[in-house]
Design a protein that fits this description.
332 residues; alpha+beta; seven-stranded mixed β-sheet; 7 strands; globular
Length: 332
Amino acid sequence: MAGESHVNHKVLAKHAENKVNVPRDDAKERRRQVNHLRERLESYIDDHPDYDLVKLRASGSTAKHTAIKRRKGEGSDADVAAYVRSCDPDTPESDLLEWLRDRCIEVYGKTKVADDFVISQHAVGITLRGSGLKIDVAPVLDTGESDDKGYLITRQGERVLTSVTQHLEFIRTRKGKAGPGYAELIRLLKAWIRESKRLDPDLRCKSFLLELIVAHLWDNGWNGESLEVDDYPRAIEQVLAYIVRTGLKSPIVFDDFYDPADVLTTYEAIQVWDPVNPENNVASSYTEHDRQRLVDQAATSLDEISWAATAPTKGDANDAWRTLFGPSFEGA
């Protein structure tokens, strides 16, 4: 359906390149700032024996090559996992984020103010005022196991098993088979949900949730068809149709790193399981209201794509796609 429209694969690829993807110079600056932080953090942690620094790992969308241009006030530009091991068994794990924040402050000395360091649920966010970059540093308790397995620590001191290496392997395996269109599709979907949230600030949808829906459709197809990662309008249509028709009520489970039988039955509104942790439903905090709101948004966007596919003029088709990507979409 979408292949006959004025807005075709080539048009969306151009939009992604010009408006969605991180420019090469910006990506280079991100790497430079992250490397500076990593080098300084290593020495500062060594000087404070509460925790031993085991290793530092790049993580998140930048490491996965699914990052998009960040708007002011949005999430991080880069993510770093700081694997540490406690030197004192009596040290409360709930204090780990505060401890790491203090170490990050020491890295930058008097060049920054306290407001530039913000603790979130799992990480310490550092805002670099000069460049506008934001780096999230997440402390991970090292387990000594292979594949960089460890426990993220929440502000409440709760443990969440993760593995930076396995998360990267999960997406690299699929990107290797699908080609560059796989990551570009994820970036376009992230741009869609960002615009959707701009219009509806109460809408909830993590970018990681979108990544896992794409992975599920790549593995299993949808409605008897493969996920068309080399036809962006069609692939976006497939993802939205999946969200609408299933209502996100069908559990999504992967078998890359564990037996799906290890996943426990739960009753959350949306059930999409972390591919490296069978005990972590990444959508566990979503309510029934959140689920329905996301499904409704996908339905609205799907209707716009359907209209664009048969729109009589380029202007009409472009206007329809602007409801997905915002006024910056130049179109055909």
